[in-house]
Amino acid sequence: MNLNKLKKLSGDASFRSFYRNKNFKQNSIIVYSKKEKKNNLLIYSAINNLLIKKNLLAPKLIKNNYNKNFIEIEDFGDLTVFQFLSKKKKNQLFYYKKIIFLLNRIQKIKTKKIKTFINTEYKIPIYSKEKLINEANLFLKWYLPKIIKGKKNIEKKKLSEIFKKLLNKLNYKKKVFVHRDFHISNIMITKKGLGLIDSQDAVFGNVAYDLASLIDDVRLKTNKNLKEKIFNEFIKNNKSLDKDKFRNDFEILSVLRNFKIIGIFSRLSKRDQKHQYLKLIPHAWKLIENRINNNTKFNDLKIIIDKNFPKKIRNNES
What we know:
CATH superfamily of the largest domain: Aminoglycoside phosphotransferase (APH), C-terminal lobe
Helix content: 40-55%
Largest sheet: 5 strands, antiparallel
Number of strands: 11
CATH topology of the largest domain: Aminoglycoside 3'-phosphotransferase, Chain: A, domain 2
Distance between the termini: 40 Å
Structural class: alpha+beta
CATH class of the largest domain: Alpha Beta
Number of domains: 2
Radius of gyration: 20 Å
């Protein structure tokens, strides 16, 4: 297949490229990835297949050309929930309720081992504290050195220790299926309902993680009132959760996730020359501020942040 003859679509933060293959019967999407193709093609397709088996909407595999670094999958169109809600400012909670319903269905998935299209077995990993720490530390590796010069190793160590202490305060040990990038740019509006994309990084982890991704989404600015209503909608649908304990986990994971995001966006700019994500960093900082201000468990974090990353820096693209 000659990819140069196909329409290239806007990509994501991965090493994948997407092309629309127009067909008189049905359009399809070509997903090309030469780098990290196991994760971006093989595991991506396997997780999609698992979601489909659980009666969830995910892109179906049409053709496997793994040896040529691409697969062909179902085309969900171009309309993401992000695009829809960016234009529709009223009654947003109505649509978030549908997303919460989707999230509840995802979290019911128990399957831990799945077959890939090359007949190997893939075990969905556990979202361990080590993984969470390593992700939060992307902030220390890729963002912090641009801001802090002299004593950066001391500040790195202090922040890493604070990250570990916060993770040790998580209440919920039971692991549920976590999409891991559950935000409204990865949820498509299709004729059949809401479809999930970008699922290759799925893990089994904390019940609050995907909700934190959804509510404190760096791409769409929502007010505190709507955030709280979405949070309460999730609690209403999960009565077995202790609200205070769950909120604790939600806040910690939201903060650490946004530190990870700042690190990833900085890496994308420096390593991959994808500078468009830098403009989202000030809002990621804002989301962190909203969670740590007037919240005693974040006191140590707030002190070191205010000392090293004043408002002027947080409000600038880096």
